[in-house]
Amino acid sequence: MRPFLSHPFDDDKLKEECGVFGVIGVADAANFVALGLHALQHRGQEAAGIVSHHPEHGFNSARRFGYVRDNFTNQKVMDTLPGELAIGHVRYSTAGSKGATAIRDVQPFFGEFSMGGAAIAHNGNLTNAAQLRKELIERGSIFQSSSDSECIIHLMARSIQRTVPERMKDALRRVEGAFSVIAMTRTKLIGVRDPLGVRPLVLGRVGEGYALSSETCGLDIIGADFVREVEPGEMVVIEDGEITSSRPFAPATSRFCIFEHVYFSRPDSILGGRSVYETRRQIGVELAREAPVEADLVCPVPDSGTPAAIGYSQESGIPYAMGIIRNQYMGRTFIEPTEQIRNMGVRLKLNVNRGLIKGKRIILVDDSVVRGTTSRKIKDMILDAGAAEVHFRIASPPTAWPCFYGVDTPERSKLLAANMSEEEMRDWIGVDSLRFISLDGLYRAAGEPEGRDPRRPQYCDACFSGEYPVAPSDKLAEGFEMKEAAE
Amino acid sequence: MRPFLSHPFDDDKLKEECGVFGVIGVADAANFVALGLHALQHRGQEAAGIVSHHPEHGFNSARRFGYVRDNFTNQKVMDTLPGELAIGHVRYSTAGSKGATAIRDVQPFFGEFSMGGAAIAHNGNLTNAAQLRKELIERGSIFQSSSDSECIIHLMARSIQRTVPERMKDALRRVEGAFSVIAMTRTKLIGVRDPLGVRPLVLGRVGEGYALSSETCGLDIIGADFVREVEPGEMVVIEDGEITSSRPFAPATSRFCIFEHVYFSRPDSILGGRSVYETRRQIGVELAREAPVEADLVCPVPDSGTPAAIGYSQESGIPYAMGIIRNQYMGRTFIEPTEQIRNMGVRLKLNVNRGLIKGKRIILVDDSVVRGTTSRKIKDMILDAGAAEVHFRIASPPTAWPCFYGVDTPERSKLLAANMSEEEMRDWIGVDSLRFISLDGLYRAAGEPEGRDPRRPQYCDACFSGEYPVAPSDKLAEGFEMKEAAE
Amino acid sequence: MRPFLSHPFDDDKLKEECGVFGVIGVADAANFVALGLHALQHRGQEAAGIVSHHPEHGFNSARRFGYVRDNFTNQKVMDTLPGELAIGHVRYSTAGSKGATAIRDVQPFFGEFSMGGAAIAHNGNLTNAAQLRKELIERGSIFQSSSDSECIIHLMARSIQRTVPERMKDALRRVEGAFSVIAMTRTKLIGVRDPLGVRPLVLGRVGEGYALSSETCGLDIIGADFVREVEPGEMVVIEDGEITSSRPFAPATSRFCIFEHVYFSRPDSILGGRSVYETRRQIGVELAREAPVEADLVCPVPDSGTPAAIGYSQESGIPYAMGIIRNQYMGRTFIEPTEQIRNMGVRLKLNVNRGLIKGKRIILVDDSVVRGTTSRKIKDMILDAGAAEVHFRIASPPTAWPCFYGVDTPERSKLLAANMSEEEMRDWIGVDSLRFISLDGLYRAAGEPEGRDPRRPQYCDACFSGEYPVAPSDKLAEGFEMKEAAE
Amino acid sequence: MRPFLSHPFDDDKLKEECGVFGVIGVADAANFVALGLHALQHRGQEAAGIVSHHPEHGFNSARRFGYVRDNFTNQKVMDTLPGELAIGHVRYSTAGSKGATAIRDVQPFFGEFSMGGAAIAHNGNLTNAAQLRKELIERGSIFQSSSDSECIIHLMARSIQRTVPERMKDALRRVEGAFSVIAMTRTKLIGVRDPLGVRPLVLGRVGEGYALSSETCGLDIIGADFVREVEPGEMVVIEDGEITSSRPFAPATSRFCIFEHVYFSRPDSILGGRSVYETRRQIGVELAREAPVEADLVCPVPDSGTPAAIGYSQESGIPYAMGIIRNQYMGRTFIEPTEQIRNMGVRLKLNVNRGLIKGKRIILVDDSVVRGTTSRKIKDMILDAGAAEVHFRIASPPTAWPCFYGVDTPERSKLLAANMSEEEMRDWIGVDSLRFISLDGLYRAAGEPEGRDPRRPQYCDACFSGEYPVAPSDKLAEGFEMKEAAE
């Protein structure tokens, strides 16, 4: 049964909502999927699910709240998931207003079609799901979850195509938004990315079989060799050791999510041929050039600010130091905590290294500022410990717009940068200086030496720029106001 | 109920066995103890216990397997622990051969005496517990646990003194070994350290009350101000806001455990007036001087090698980089894992940052080598990722002797350094070079500019030197052979 | 999470598969439903579910494995089910061959339609569910459960009617078999019985509101007054305190299940105006007339044989006695029991009253013989205790045919009476005499003084007679052979 | 972990506090103990414990809250209890005022002595436990539980005898009160009854081994043959297939608890050579003679009133009927129930058979009246169902005094019969007549044709007569006032 989750501690981060993993052609495929999902756990910590298929035992499924390692390592559970073909999904819990997740919201979703069953796992977000859902219900479909992803399986069920891949094409041509989808039938493993390739999806080879994973770190853990990325707009179908590729969508220019480089993906993953760690370190280098300051120590806000802090230190020559220590036994789930625990907030997770900080001028490097509440608390802790000065350096531009492509963002009104100038933010947080990397600086660090091409941006950066590559139809219908074109 | 724990992954570290925390004079004292134990979780992850006292509700106790945050944050549990006085304990699970821990082995231990009850929590290990236990059983004491610490409470029960502090003195004069003990009666909080002060214990002030903690990081989390260390051989009794100090034991020279600096304590703690982080960074500096090597990157084995790697990089000028990434969702408890999971070992926890490592000459900095098995696996991972050379630098001297003072060490025969020379170890691990810091270098980093004084060593370094400051009587009776004096 | 159920003990009974309960117009309706389901627990012990509706909080649902009292009495769970309108369902676990029940098989089923949501709970079994399911899948419906009842909600989703009651009529006109269905929308409570009225359904008044229940004992527990039965082929819709009745089906003669009188229903329920207890006692009276024997004691096989044993004793004048004692702490769920426990079988549940039995001629009255295995074990126990003679008297005719209308029956080949004559059964069980009540005797006890009308039987007695009032289409398609008409 | 029990339903019964079981000389002895305890579950439902010994694996123990069948049937648990020698205990939860039971209060208790370990399980209650405990604590014993039984093991630990049986004798000669104790060492199974033999204890033979059980029903379930009762004041020691009997105490006249016949023991047990069922039926016969009344039906209050109701019916000629039906899915544990559930009280458990009762004059036979609250509620239910008259007949004399010998009784002030005359009780309950069996009638039914011998009563009947065969020292010290001798 689901624990009554509470999140008393303001994580104050954008949150990737999902990770997907699939494997075909290896014994005990579900075990590999469990390992892959464990490596992708940073993409979703609330729940996980695995579906497997075995010629004799058919499709089997297990879906659980909690970490992968707490639910999918046990022999007894894994014995219920036999076969050489399996897919899985990790899911992030979206915030309160959307209502609590039920176990039936946990993917993969399974549908029995007239030609056999199929399961799908979706990373991303459909921007026209509300309209599709309404239409499907009117025609007699019964939805089991509150997930936008369920539209895909109902659209597939209603397609008159005779194979699952063709039904998927039918379905995915009807949806808008961002999607990296992994699907399976009794014999096929299928991977698709939306035309813009907003979310990542990579292909690997493991023994005689193949694996699909949101990130390369999922391939590493099972010892799979990286083959290539599934390309934006591509569908791959793997069956009997053969890969078939097709392009079901109209051609489009890729717009990969730049925030995957900044924060979402693991530093040991390789995205678009670039080491995520190296991109983040380079952000620090750019930041040191754009926003230098005299100080004694460069300290990361752990753990996500670490690579940029290293880069800043290397470029500036100011020594790098662990000024804030993270409690490694901190989890996210607190069941009905006491008032006092609730009020501890960030101190449960972080402690200042007092012996180091006292009397020093500190540069703190963090990955982003969302609501800004954590930044204030960290500043308080650092000053309490006796720092002489505190300078914040942020490894991303101001986050001023919500994401509608599979990331949990606060409403625009709660984004600090949507409401304040950089100076106002500095004053509100209460630090000696606050500087964000420029959008061009970020693009340079991400491998675009000329910076951002304003006419045809190389990445999706809607959260910084407000320029949405896919119109968020459902949100517009709800009244969301996009940036004016003239701006 | 206790999960059937299994530890399929060779942690290959020495393990501190306990942490203790107590507080008096604050509302909801048990909440503070829970927070303090959460900060001390690195000293023991298997189980935790808290005892509180309330004038109306008397003594109450809760003992649980698992992390503090999973058991002692819940309102319902904490409501059962009312009062302004409480103590707690975290405990490490010792390995299989000693048999499984039962909940009755989890401290604090409580005894009802004729003048009232008392509870104790012990960090350390008694070296004459077996003899004491035998003697106590012969006289009619009934032991409830297999813990050496239980002897203390039985000795107290049999003392003819009329107060708990006096009974504690009686009891502690009979025991040998290492002990930092926190105790409580209905009105008193008591702290004692053994004459050599092998394990840490610090005193802090919180509001109108006082706290005792194994390390200063426990004070930080509750916002307590550090007052001073409880001194070796000292007993402090806190009652009604007054602290009384006494010295129950014969005077002796302090021998604080140097491994607390190397690995056990948290880097944000301050021990003996020294920042643990700074000592570790300085170890890296010394190591760079003692054992330089040409290379492209200095990488820590996370997380414990990090400060020394930073120091090594700073002294050598070779860039610091995160060559190995730690999965932050890795816990220790796997319940009946599948064979495949069991075999994954270190890969569940660590992944190489392949994009960074390929073709590079890597210096890996780790805190210690115990069995050496993890070092081998890490070397394999690094070479698989395409490193050109691998050089291990170890932030402690070779660990060649077991500890009998509250640390879980393998038998001597399983310690790599007890059986091989440094060169043999290098070959067995299979790296291009392997160097340990010298004992003198370690002492210098730990604040002794002249290095180790061989006649009166400033620290306990038995695990490196084989020189045991307290004779391990029980172990000698079992046949353990000490290093010959002539050596 | 679901316990791994095992049923090591041959219950050797036909099992009612479901009970349904609903209430409208009372505060905290779900609490009443929980109580009603507790009273109906004998109709299904594996799982239970409740759906409620509240104007502000919408539809809410909770479904759990285990007893009602273990899951639906807790304040926290019940707080999640607010509103003045709620329905519920208890479910029996069908045996292994059909595969384990998943939580998604637990009713009520909920569907979101274009005009709003509806939930349904079904007692009975659809005999054409397989064909309907195939057809629905071909048209794009996605089934979430393996339950035949789910067809109803999909048929409703596809109906083009504009109200839920009209959609239910559309749907129920397409299904065949036995059904007593309770449904709810945001404002209506609906009850329907199939044209033959095979399963019971009664209407009660509670305060200003109304209740629907499988049996009158469900009304008693909440203090509701019995109003009347929902009639065979009738639909009642209750909204705003008004009851609307309609007759959606072609008229038919009622064929109520006679086994509800024999065993399924609770003895304190009133079915068709008759006290179940009294009918059962009267069966004993008839049996004493049809099959007298000289003996010392009449003993029931507890608890279901008790009323008939009382009747037998009263008619025969042979003293009634509790010769077999039931262990009241016996439950059904054993999780992975040891071999020895598994082999104990009936002895875990029943013990012979040795002090009473020794040397006596015993008449044992049981409700039915299914596989006969329990009868043999009971006979062994009675003889071990020293009985001089054992005479079995069975309160139902030989069970020779499976039921397809909502009862879990073994395959025909496993029914003792399908394979043996009464004498063969007597020899196989090993008793001095074995007699079943005649079908006419049973009808007389059930209020038909002339016995069974062979041309238009007043009850459904297919399990005894093989005459199925509704053709079991799916089963016939699978190859089930019905009794030949000539017989 | 222990559920937070609540008992919202006034059980309104005296409660036996314990049952004990032991076996030696059979493979997997703990399995037999689990079965025996399951049969003795009526003697204690809160918790159970088993200790076993195996030559290789030593002593092992498991103690759990909840029913035996929920905790001690599982293969995994039973695998932890290997060996051919085991003992066990079931325990009743005493009411709130005494504080919640902790798992450490659950027996068997184990002690490690200098000559080896021993475990004990105790049924009964020591009347001088408080004094003994005080004395033991003063001498340095540390108590782990709040149980009076723990005194025995501490007294044994301090004995200077060299064998466990001799130490038990030393210990048991110091205690006062009622005790049937089963103990075990590595090789011996030991049984002892106090000199008055207040609580039962029987010896059986199973295969090549022996069993000890509180009641004969415990022997029946494992297929053991009844050998004889352990006699009042006797100790039996079983080792290597040999039984040694001794008499450690001063001779005394037996005073077996007569309430074991009335209510505590199972009806299929044989106590003192008498069938419990038969005694209870005979009580009904006596009651019909002592307190006849014209009526239509004799109905038991299920289940404990059943045998007496049968006897009453047989003697009076008034038909016996099941006028009240018990819900067999009713358990005792409700975790934080809703207000509404809490208020349901007896209706969750019992329902009136309305079809039977209406317009009838009903004789209700119950085993006892304690607080009287349940009697009132049952009367209400019966009248609500339309009964014309209600006559209560009680199968025991008025319960006017608390029991101090191992039974949970309310304080004297809460016993209805301690505060009212029979007529006052009738009025307070609100029935047409209320009659209790006389003390002499009860003795006659229990095999004493001359009734009670007032000078040397054959049974302990303190709860009826106020004549305590052992002075309740601790209670007298607390201020309990015994009946004056003159009375």
From TrEMBL, chains A, B, C, D:
[4Fe-4S] cluster binds at C257, C403, C460, C463. Pfam families: GATase_7. The keyword Glycosyltransferase applies. Catalyzes the formation of phosphoribosylamine from phosphoribosylpyrophosphate (PRPP) and glutamine. Keywords: 4Fe-4S, Glutamine amidotransferase, Glycosyltransferase, Iron, Iron-sulfur, Magnesium, Metal-binding, Purine biosynthesis, Transferase. GO terms for molecular function: 4 iron, 4 sulfur cluster binding; amidophosphoribosyltransferase activity; magnesium ion binding. It catalyses: 5-phospho-beta-D-ribosylamine + L-glutamate + diphosphate = 5-phospho-alpha-D-ribose 1-diphosphate + L-glutamine + H2O. Its cofactor is Mg(2+); [4Fe-4S] cluster. Its EC number is 2.4.2.14. HAMAP family: PurF. NCBIfam families: purF. Pathway: Purine metabolism; IMP biosynthesis via de novo pathway; N(1)-(5-phospho-D-ribosyl)glycinamide from 5-phospho-alpha-D-ribose 1-diphosphate: step 1/2. Mg(2+) binds at S304, D366, D367. GO terms for biological process: 'de novo' IMP biosynthetic process; purine nucleobase biosynthetic process. PANTHER family: AMIDOPHOSPHORIBOSYLTRANSFERASE. This is Amidophosphoribosyltransferase. It comes from Falsirhodobacter algicola. InterPro entries: GATase_2_dom, Ntn_hydrolases_N, PRTase-like, PRTase_dom, PurF, PurF_N. Binds 1 Mg(2+) ion per subunit. Binds 1 [4Fe-4S] cluster per subunit. The keyword Iron applies. PROSITE patterns: GATASE_TYPE_2. In the C-terminal section; belongs to the purine/pyrimidine phosphoribosyltransferase family.
